[in-house]
Every structure is written in C-alpha cells, then in structure tokens.
Q: What sequence folds into this?
C-alpha cells in the first residue's frame, strides 16, 4: 500500500477538487515557500475556479496569487498574516470578497470547531514517507517545526503531503502521522530554506532600537516576573531580539532558571535554552536555520501545534501560562488597541499571527515600537485596524517613554513598580503628543468604502474590518 | 494557571461524573495497574452507580471490579482483552448486560467515529506536568508507549491525568499534549512496573514450542516475504518469540534489512532493531522493561497511537503495510476462524487485542498454537467464539503440521511454496483429526442461553456473541 501519486495534478484530481472549494497551506517555508504557487499554478491550468485559499500566512513570494485572483481562480482568501506585496493589491481592491484574517490560534481553533472547513490541505513537508508520515526537521528543505500544519492535517477532508525528500516507510521522527494523510507527491523542491529567515531576525544596532530594548528589559525586571519559572515569547524584530539579549544577561547574572520560551523561535531563543535560561522551548515555527538545527537535535526544543501554542479550542494552550510577550505595532491608539495589519496609510502589510493570542494569554504583554515611522506617529486617536484589543495590552515602550495601560482596571501596581525603577513612565496621551511634536499631526487617512478584510479575533468573532485605500 | 486538583475525588467531582456515564482507562501498566481500581473505589465511596467502564484491557489485578459490578457501581463493561479472573465471573453471568469486546484498532476508531462515547477518561501517566502534558517514557512507573490512551484523551468529554511523577511545566518529551487534558491529580503510585511484564515474554524452551517456531520461521522464509523492507509483528507468547529469534538469525545471516517491527513490543524486537533487522519500531504498548528503556532512548523506537497502529478511522494504519504477523489461538475451526476470547470450555480468558486488526492488515497472518491444550484439541468444527474471521487468516502452524488457508480463493501459491520447502503441509481437517487422535473427540461444550459478551469487529459491526457457561 502506498499513497504516492505521480504529480500535483494527480493529487488534485484524486482529491476531486472542484470549483468553489477551500484549499489550505501552511507557511513554515515562509518567504522561501514554493508549494502554494506550484499548486495554484496547476489548479489554474486545470481550469478550476472560484477557490478559497486559506494559507496560514501569505509572503511576498506568493505574489503570483494576485494573478490567480484576477483570473477568477482564487475568489476567497483567508490568512493570519499577509506581506506587503499581496497586501497592497488587496488594499487596492483586487479581491471582491473581503479577506478573512485570523490569529494563529484562532485559525487552528476555527478548523477544530468546524467554523473553518478545508476541503483539501496541501502540506509542504521537508521529509515524508509514502504513507504520509512527515516532518519539517529533516531533509534539504528542512524548516523545523510544522506546527501550523497540524490543524490542517487533522481537520481537512483531504490531505496532500508535498515533499522533496521521500524516505522509506516508516519515517523515523514523524511529526504528522499517516492517519491524516490521503496522498503523497514528490516535487523537485518545496522551497528555498534561505527564505525561512525573516528579514528582521538580527539584533538591532540602531541606537533607538537599543534604547527601547534597554527600557523593555528593565520593565520586565521591574515587573517582578523575571524569576525562576519565567516564561517568555519574543518576535523576530531587531528591538525585541535586543531585549531578549538583555533579558538573557540579567537571567544569567542572577542565576534565574526560566520555564519556557515560546513562539516563532529564533537562534537567540536557542542560545537562551542552551545557556540554561529555559528548561524547554515550545516551537510552532522556526524563524531561522539555527532554530531548525536546534529542534532537530535538542529534545528540549519541542514542536507544538498551533492549538497547543495559542488556540482556544483545546483545554489549554502555551499562551495561557506565558509571563511576558514582546510584540510590535504599526499603530497604538489611546485605548491601547494595536494595529499590526496595516501601515499608517492603511495598506495591509502584516497580520496578527500570534499577536492577539499571546497578548490575551500573557501576564505582561509589551508593545515595543519607535514613536514615529516614516514621519508618521505611532500613537493615534484610533487605529486604522484593531488587530489586538487594548484590554489585553499592558505596556507600550517607545524610545521616548513608556505608557502603562491602566485603562481597564489593571496594572496600577505595575505602573508604580516601573516608576519606582525610575523608568520614564508617561501616559499614552503624552506619547501621542511627543510623536506629533516629532512628526507633526498627520493628515487623517482617507480610506475607501469597500471592506477588503474582516479581522476575526481568536475566538472567531469579528474584531474589526479593513477598508480599501483610495 | 494549573489543572492540578487535590485528589481523585475532586477530579471526579469537577468532571461532574454522574450515574449512567461511561468512563475509560488504558492498560499500559498491564497487570501492574493501580489506577482503575483506585478510581472505581473512589467512585463507589461517592455513591455513583450504573457506570460503564471502557478499559482497553482488563487484567487479573482488576479483580475488584467484580465487587463493583455486584454492587451496581459498574453495570456496563467494554474492553479489548479480559484476563481469566474477571473473565470467569463474566462467563458465569455476574454482569447483566453483555460485555462489549472490541479490537485495539476498533476501540480507538469507534471513539473517533463517535459510536463509542466516553464521558470521563482517566489516563495513568508515569510522568506529567500540571497542565496535563504527559508521557509513559519517564518516571518511576514508566511503561513506555501510552499509545492506547491517545484516543481516550482526544475524544473523551473530560480527561483526567493521574500521575505519580509530577514535573515542572512544560514536560520535555510529552506524548499527549495539554490541549486534551482537563485535570491532573497526583497519587503515591499509579502502578507497579514489574506488572507490565506479561507472563509470556520469554522464549519457550518447550520442544513443542520450538518445533512450531522452527516451522513458522520456515513458513515466513518460504513465503518470499523475508526480503529487504520486511515488516513484522509478534506477540509475547513463548513460541512466537522463539520464531522471532529464528527470523532474526535468518535476517542477519542473509543481510536482510527490514522495514519495521510493530505491536506490543518486547525486548526481542528491540534486539532486532538494534542489530539492524529493522529501521524502526512502531510501538503501541511495551510488553517488558527492556522495551520501555528502548522507547525512552532510541528515536527509531517510536510511539504510535492505537489509530496509527491498527485503526480503521484514520486514512491508513501500520497494519495496512504489515508483511507478517504471528498470532495465537485457543481454537481454530475448519473455516479458519480463530478464537482468542474463550478457552475450550467457553470461559472468557482473553480477547482480540490487535489480533483481528493485524490479521486483516498483514499479507501473511500466521496462527501458531499447539495441537492440543489441557487434553482438548485446537481445531474444532466451529469456534466457541469467532475473534478473527477465517478469511483474514492465512496459515495455521502446529507441531504436527501446517494448514494453509485456501478456502477463500487465496494462498494457492503460498501452499505450493511451503510444499516445495518440504514443510509438513496438511489440510485443516487433518489437523483436527490428529488433535482428536491425541486428545480424543471432545464432548460438545454446553453453554447457557445468556449472552455475556458481544464481540465487535474492528469496523464496529457485530462479529459474534459469547454465551454464559453452565
């Protein structure tokens, strides 16, 4: 018995993919992924139309999807993150139906709850056997964790594993077991591992970034959470990585033994694991090749599914026990709502990913962002898009001051602790004023009537909408 | 956040267990398991009645369940295997409702299909953290694989992890993730690991057993299946282990590189892995402590769920690619049906386990059994219970001859191959006659009218019933 088929086309045919169905993809190959484009190209050739694509993230490499939208092959798009290239086209109205944005936890949970139905899932698998057991840890295109693909595999009606490294059955060290897989197809290359590395996985050398990082590390220390058992998530931005570096130094200096690091994992978190700052890493995706190497070789570096990372459909998730998460923002408003979906001009260039999931779960959710970007202020009256509700955000750190969110009946004690630590605590309104002093009061952004995206919260409810640019 | 509760009673209360519900247990602690008895004792004290117990297997250590049946605490019993002590009581009619017997694959699949609904699952976990991540590989009561517990964890409405080795969150090397677990409770001891070792995990020295093993190894060789890529399951019986030894010698002598060994795993299969006969083991339960040590330390020795091992609800299972399985029997009838549920007098003392699953999946399902037991013949006109349908059985090996099953339009070629290898091929009717020459023609067994058990096939359909003894 074997599930091997000769081509992507044969897999699509055997899955009986038809007009109007929904197909899904995961994004662990990140900007190096070839599978989404390959599959859509084949589908286009086959004349199938009116598909919805649910991809955990859309990167710039997926720009060809714009053509498929224009040709009617793709008429629905759902994702947790969208890079600027496709984002621009969406913001300009290329797609008739609104995009559905979810969070990483929400996407998996909506599949598990049955509110997001996938007809055919395509799993880009760096190594697989002919029955569909597969892993991201091995093979020439190794990407490490394939945590976002678990929900697709477990819930889609049909599942196709696409691999460029077929090994004899049974694959030793499978992540996704054969029980979920219908067909296996081999291709020359599922992607370019060099594209896994996001553009922002180096510690910043910019003095503004370093100052923010320094403040943030002090906020964490002053909060009292930096003690044995500390759990921590960073993103891959330069300032958050610099913060991680400072936090590591504090932990090592004081002999603090943390519990776990989580999230998209970078080599910096791997260093913290190896230097004893954490007992484990919970890894839903690898942000660089050092993380890929670590998850392959270190049992303490564990792959987790999106549900286990951040979902609401399971009985708990890693985010529920998180102490501190460091997050970015393009805009923060006076209610501490955060926008990570659009830039300040309203163009889509991001998405929640795990932003709102971790903010909701963490004891201390810290936004780190420079006070202005491209001469536009960070802090505004009302975000163009609410990606993460203000009530789940605790602190905003900028290079010119730190605002503690006491607007929802919490964090009064934290605010006093930060003041006592002589940190530059200000009000969010002060940050807005400072930003406007630097950058001027921005002209109100004029957006179109058309709704180009619906932003769902992690529980599946509508959080906000995104309007077309004019 | 923590899921830790103070006692089994508190866990039961929080799960809102009520009269008439169904609770489940897995059997990896085998005859050393304390958890089933502990939980039932607490439930009895709480005055809850009329429960159905779905335990993957019932061993002699679970004898106290008889008292709970007599007291009305337990009024339904479902399992895949039942040891002789409880089996005797059931055969004598202690339980009003028929027991439901399933196979290991069928039990998991019935849960996944929703035809077997579990209200509260109790997972005996040799190591766990306070959020319910757990494993059988670590801890003082390590049992290795907990593959049968996956379906319970994933499908029960409420899941309680019972452990005697609580470790800091997050447990490194979890098997079952926290997403499925509601409560965690610690007890002094979940069981006695010495009880994991089944009574029959030593190679036989009995000349009859050795002769059968020798024949069986020759059958495997003559079948042509003993080539590179060979996959193999043995049980833990003395003659099957001796066969494994002979097969190993043949593989090593010829330099044959097998694919996988599967099943309940013994130290003998571990040796075969370590000596290069297999590239991997797929382990749904460990039969001895050498297997426990191996699954903890050797990545090639992999834990699989019951669904991945033998289910019909997944898109494939390990049994689907199995070349050869060695199985036992208490009775074989002239249609090659096999009984492993009752002895020749009709007393329940076993069950399918993976018997019918592997027979259905394997290319070559071999029954190994002595021609007589306790002066009763193996081969009978009609089995007292059909545990495995004859159409899935290929060969019956006894010390006095080998019967090839050609009754269902298959195995003609195999029969010729065995004859060409000068093996003592006879008809099943010949085996019956020889057995009766040795043991005499048995008196027909007189059973009662009452049905004490329904035997379900792996697909959930009724395969046979078991009548009470008189």
A:
């Amino acid at each position: 018995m074997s599930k091997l088929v000769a081509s992507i086309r044969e897999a699509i045919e055997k899955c009986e993919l038809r007009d109007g169905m929904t197909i899904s993809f995961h994004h662990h190959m990140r900007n190096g992924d070839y599978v989404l484009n390959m599959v859509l190209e084949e589908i286009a050739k086959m004349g199938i139309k009116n598909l919805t694509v649910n991809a955990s993230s859309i990167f710039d490499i997926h720009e060809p999807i714009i053509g498929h939208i224009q040709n009617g092959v793709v008429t629905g798009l759902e994702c947790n993150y969208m890079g600027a290239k496709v984002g621009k086209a969406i913001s300009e109205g290329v797609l008739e139906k609104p995009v559905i944005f979810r969070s990483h936890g929400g996407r998996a949970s909506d599949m598990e709850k049955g509110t997001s139905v996938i007809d055919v899932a395509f799993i880009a698998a760096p190594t697989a056997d002919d029955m569909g057991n597969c892993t991201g840890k091995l093979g020439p295109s190794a990407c490490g964790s394939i945590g976002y693909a678990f929900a697709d595999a477990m819930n889609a009606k049909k599942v196709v594993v696409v691999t460029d490294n077929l090994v004899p059955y049974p694959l030793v060290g499978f992540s996704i077991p054969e029980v979920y897989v219908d067909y296996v197809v081999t291709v020359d290359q599922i992607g370019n591992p060099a594209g896994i590395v996001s553009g922002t996985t180096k510690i910043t050398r910019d003095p503004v970034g370093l100052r923010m990082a320094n403040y943030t590390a002090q906020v964490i220390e002053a909060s009292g959470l930096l003690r044995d058992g500390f759990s921590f998530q960073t993103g891959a931005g330069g300032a958050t990585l610099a913060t991680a570096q400072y936090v590591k130094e504090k932990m090592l200096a004081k002999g603090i033994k943390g519990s776990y690091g989580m999230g998209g994992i970078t080599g910096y978190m791997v260093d913290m694991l190896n230097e004893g700052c954490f007992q484990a890493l919970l890894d839903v995706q690898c942000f660089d090749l050092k993380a890929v190497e670590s998850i392959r070789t270190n049992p303490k570096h564990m792959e987790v599914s999106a549900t286990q990372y951040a979902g609401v459909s399971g009985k708990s998730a890693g985010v529920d026990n998180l102490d501190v998460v460091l997050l970015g923002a393009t805009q923060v408003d006076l209610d501490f709502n955060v926008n990570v979906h659009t830039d300040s001009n309203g163009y889509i260039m991001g998405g929640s990913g795990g932003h709102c999931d971790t903010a909701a779960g963490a004891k201390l959710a810290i936004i780190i962002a420079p006070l202005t970007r491209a001469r536009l202020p960070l802090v505004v009256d009302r975000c163009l898009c609410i990606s993460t509700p203000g009530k789940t955000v605790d602190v905003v750190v900028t290079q010119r001051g730190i605002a503690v969110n006491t607007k929802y009946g919490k964090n009064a004690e934290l605010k006093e602790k930060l003041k006592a630590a002589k940190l530059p605590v200000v009000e969010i309104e002060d940050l807005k004023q400072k930003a406007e002093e630097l950058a001027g009061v921005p002209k109100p952004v004029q957006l179109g009537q058309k709704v180009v995206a619906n932003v769902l919260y992690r529980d599946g409810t509508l959080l906000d909408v995104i309007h077309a640019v004019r």
In short: The first helix of chain B runs from residue 8 to 14.
